């Protein structure tokens, strides 16, 4: 029978505890690098910036009721709502006696929002698209929405994390698309915001696992009822995004000036859907993996049989 040490190391095998720590570290680094790649491609290159701006200009809110819904959703996603969610997260963590999760969720929300504001204010934006606008990458509204959703998924009991992840993904996607539809942000701004939140989320999970190093960890697996919708969304959105970018790239008009383009807008929406589904799928797996293995009582541990007289010794 294979035994696990308290640190999660498989006796006689490879150290699974190291893999347990490397997972969130690698995800955090990849998400951070992907944020920089998104900035470089869609802000620092002519074709990327014009395509991104064309996507933002490719729609116009003409329905008063829809415009009102979008405006209310965006207005509700502010620092006040972030503070309310932090209080709720702290209360849930206290009730579950998981102060480590409550602190990690607070660090996640604070770190992601501060990082977004620092990047937005300090990253330069060359006016390749002819618009003298300040840099808007990453999106603050999308960061707030994704960070609140991530924090709730982290502190909630495992039985409801999948439902919370699906609801959070829907909320984050709606806010991200609303900012583009209202022409507050380009699609790349929202994708970068989601990546910033994922980077911080993986980082706080690494911290939690380091603090709980001496505990026995049981491998957690999220429910298929939660992961399947996210997988299907990603499987549909990723190829649509790639094909849309390739098709738009071949258009001389779109590639040289930011003309309003419904194709670019739909491609941007598909890209947002892909980023949201993949980020929440990754986050659900990271959050579900944090689970304690029930400890065996001393009376239930196997006692080696005593050697009978005349039997072989060691």
Automatic annotation (TrEMBL):
InterPro entries: PAP2/HPO (IPR000326), PAP2/HPO_sf (IPR036938). Residues 295-314 are annotated as: Disordered. Residues 98-205 form the Phosphatidic acid phosphatase type 2/haloperoxidase domain. It comes from the Bacteria. Coiled coil: none annotated. It holds the Pfam family PAP2. Keywords: Membrane, Transmembrane, Transmembrane helix. The chain crosses the membrane at residues 21-42, 78-95, 102-119, 139-157, 164-184, 190-211, 223-248, 263-286. SUPFAM superfamilies: Acid phosphatase/Vanadium-dependent haloperoxidase. This is Phosphatidic acid phosphatase type 2/haloperoxidase domain-containing protein. It comes from Actinoplanes missouriensis (strain ATCC 14538 / DSM 43046 / CBS 188.64 / JCM 3121 / NBRC 102363 / NCIMB 12654 / NRRL B-3342 / UNCC 431).
């Amino acid at each position: 029978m294979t035994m696990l040490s308290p640190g999660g190391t498989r006796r006689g095998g490879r150290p699974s505890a190291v893999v347990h720590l490397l997972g969130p570290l690698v995800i955090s680094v990849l998400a951070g690098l992907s944020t920089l790649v998104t900035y470089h491609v869609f802000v620092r290159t002519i074709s990327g910036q014009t395509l991104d701006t064309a996507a933002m200009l490719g729609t116009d809110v003409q329905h008063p009721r829809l415009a009102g819904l979008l405006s209310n959703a965006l207005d509700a996603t502010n620092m006040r709502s972030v503070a309310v969610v932090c209080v709720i997260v702290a209360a849930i963590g206290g009730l579950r006696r998981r102060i480590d999760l409550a602190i990690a969720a607070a660090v996640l929300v604070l770190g992601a929002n501060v990082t977004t504001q620092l990047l937005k204010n300090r990253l330069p934006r060359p006016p390749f698209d002819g618009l003298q606008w300040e840099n808007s990458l990453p999106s603050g509204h999308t960061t707030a929405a994704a960070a609140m959703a991530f924090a709730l998924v982290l502190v909630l009991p495992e039985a409801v994390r999948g439902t919370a992840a699906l609801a959070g993904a829907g909320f984050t996607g709606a806010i991200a698309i609303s900012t583009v539809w209202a022409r507050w942000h380009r699609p790349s701004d929202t994708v970068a915001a989601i990546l910033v939140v994922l980077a911080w989320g993986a980082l706080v999970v690494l911290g939690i696992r380091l603090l709980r190093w001496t505990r026995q960890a049981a491998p957690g697996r999220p429910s298929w009822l939660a992961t399947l919708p996210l997988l299907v969304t990603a499987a549909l959105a990723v190829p649509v995004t790639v094909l849309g970018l390739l098709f738009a790239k071949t258009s001389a008009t779109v590639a040289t000036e930011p003309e309003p383009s419904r194709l670019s807008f739909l491609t941007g929406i598909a890209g947002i859907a892909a980023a949201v589904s993949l980020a929440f799928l990754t986050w659900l797996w990271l959050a579900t993996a944090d689970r304690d293995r029930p400890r065996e009582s001393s009376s239930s541990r196997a006692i080696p049989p005593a050697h009978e007289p005349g039997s072989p010794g060691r």
